[in-house]
Design a protein that fits this description.
The complex is a heterodimer of chains A (61) and B (250). Chain A has one helix and five strands, in the order αβββββ. Chain A is of the alpha+beta class. Chain B is of the alpha/beta class and 250 residues long. Chain B has one domain: Vaccinia Virus protein VP39 (Rossmann fold). Chain B contains ten helices and nine strands. Classes of the chains: A alpha+beta (61), B alpha/beta (250). At the A-B interface, α1 and β4 of A face α5 and β5 of B.
Chain lengths: 61, 250
Amino acid sequence: MTAEKPLHDRHMLEALVCPLTHAVLRYDAEAQELISLPAGLAYPIRGGVPILLPDEARRLD
Amino acid sequence: MTDSTQNTTHFGFQTVNEGEKAGMVHGVFTRVASKYDIMNDLMSLGIHRLWKDAMMNWLAPRPGQHLLDMAGGTGDVAFRFLGRAPGATATVCDMTESMLTEGQKRAEAENLASRLEWVEADAMALPFADNSYDVFTMSFGIRNVTRISDVLAEAFRVLRPGGRLMVLEFSQLPNPALQWLYDRYSFNVIPPLGALVAKDRDSYQYLVESIRKFPDQEAFARMIRAAGFGQVKYRNLSMGIAALHSGWKI
């Protein structure tokens, strides 16, 4: 995966919402995570595929 | 029902607690992913391709539409949709990572990359905003979910007003004699075939049981209406071995 993501990918990531709260997600490009503050979860992006499953998410401290 | 009673659902012919099903289904598809396309061909004698074409004919994709293909794993439906509609875009969503990985490996995925996105999520809790898609499709996926009504509610939520739902799923043959014959075929041929080709008899045993357990055409149509969809209709494919259900968010 290249660090510079194509534009359409960025648009896609910004269109996603938290499946639990429907809150807008913050994209952390460095960590390759999508952050849902209301749910307290960081959803991983693996191989360019965002994984919006709460069971797969990292709990925010 | 008391508070301590756990809700149950079907996993093939077994009755399991709701909390268990997703993991069990996930296990099945993780195991079969790499052989999924070839097994579909063998199980349906290639006819699933004609069914997906029939789905596209009824759906009539239009330029610029935004498709959400749920349980779209290997991309079959999304590739067909994009092939028919210039400038359309598609989100392929699946709960199983290995199914998405298989789809991304296919040649069409490369050619259509700029119009495709891949997302891993649960059909019962979609990570998309309200009113964000023109078309919601699900082919051979909805019988695997824990609560069908939750999926239909999510489809209704993410479709924009005027948007369309289309579901392709195995169904029941209206003719009892044919259903009997088909059951013999399903239960005697498919699990051994799965053992032979995919080295996994149990997963294919689950697949045939889950087909038999899925609501028939009319019952499923009622569930779609109950989710709020209008103009709900269905078409039988191959005498009812599969059916297409269509509904509109109006």
